[in-house]
Amino acid sequence: MLGAPSFLILAPSAHAQATAITGNQVTTATVETIDPDTKTILLRDHTGGLVTVTIPKDAHNLPHLQPGDQINLRFFQTIAADIAKPDTPLPESTVSSAKGLVHRHPHGTLISFRRQRVRILAVNTTNHTVTFIDPDQITRTTTVHHKPMQALLSTLKVGDEVDVTTMDAVSFEVTNRTITPAVTVSEKTGQQTPAEAPHPQQ
User: Fold this and answer.
1) Taking the CA of residue 110 as centre, how many other CA atoms within 13 Å lie in the half-sphere pointing to its CB?
2) Alpha-carbon distance 25 to 142, whole Å?
3) Closest CA to 130 of 83, 78, 177
4) How far apart are CA 191 and CA 140, in angstroms?
5) Of 12, 143, 153, 159, which residue is least crowded by CB atoms under 10 Å?
6) How far does the chain reach from its first CA to its final CA, in angstroms?
7) C-alpha angle with apex 126: 122 to 129, nearest 5 degrees?
8) pLDDT in tens, 22-61
9) Residue 67: CB partners within 8 Å, gap ≥ 6?
10) Residue 156 phi/psi, 5° resolution?
11) Dist CA 127 CA 97 (whole Å)
């Protein structure tokens, strides 16, 4: 799932770039439904609201979830913008996932880097807005909300290409299930030298 960047933030340097935290949340939720075809999970949070989570197709190493599971969910998001150098390759999106146990509860971690290159069409430093065209050739206008960074829009000019990276880090723990790790004990005995057969007496 690759969405449009919510805003661009740039810092002054020889190679303008910046990173900002755009999400940091801890919550509890109940798994309502799971659609394996669309890889979506419908969650009901502690306030009763419904949230749909889409699992990237490349995320395979995650704990199995089922309707009714109670989970503790942690979400962290950043967005970074970097003026692309001329003739550099297009950025690639990546996904990594892992599973394990935390206090015997199934635990999963998912980290995705969604990368896309946009082209600047207009910059309005008075209104702190920037207009760009995304990889789907859709024109978008967005507002830079971080006040310390708003003045830095003047570093952009029409025609600049900017690589935007959205990092989503999600970890969850299934609290209603516990797993006892299997313990295997193996013992390696010493190798005995076979006894020599007695020689027949002559």
Assistant:
1) 20
2) 23
3) 83
4) 74
5) 159
6) 88
7) 45
8) 789 999 999 999 998 999 999 999 899 998 988 888 888 8
9) 31, 32, 33, 34
10) -90, 150
11) 40
Beta bridge partners of 118: 162
Please report, as a single letter, which amino acid is at residue 122: A
What's at 144, amino acid-wise?
V
pLDDT digits 0-9 by tens, 167-180: 999 999 999 999 88
State how far the Cα of 17 lies from the Cα of 12, in Å rounded to an integer: 7
Three-state DSSP string of the chain: CCCCCCCCCCCCCCCCEEEEEEEEEEEEEEEEEEECCCCEEEEEECCCCEEEEECCCCCCCCCCCCCCCEEEEEEEEEEEEEECCCCCCCCCCEEEEEEEEECCEEEEEEEEEEEEEEEEEEEECCCCEEEEECCCCCEEEEECCCHHHHHHHHHCCCCCEEEEEEEEEEEEEECCCCCCCCCCCCCCCCCCCCCCCCCCCC
Which residues partner with 77 through β-bridges? 23, 168
Look at the block and give the residue holding tokens 């197709």: 57
Q: Given the DSSP bridges, would you call strands 70-83 and 94-102 parallel, antiparallel or unpaired?
A: unpaired
Which residues have C-beta within 8 Å of that of residue 70, sequence separation ≥ 6?
28, 29, 30, 31, 174, 175, 176
How far apart, in whole angstroms, are the C-alpha atoms of residue 3 and residue 30? 25
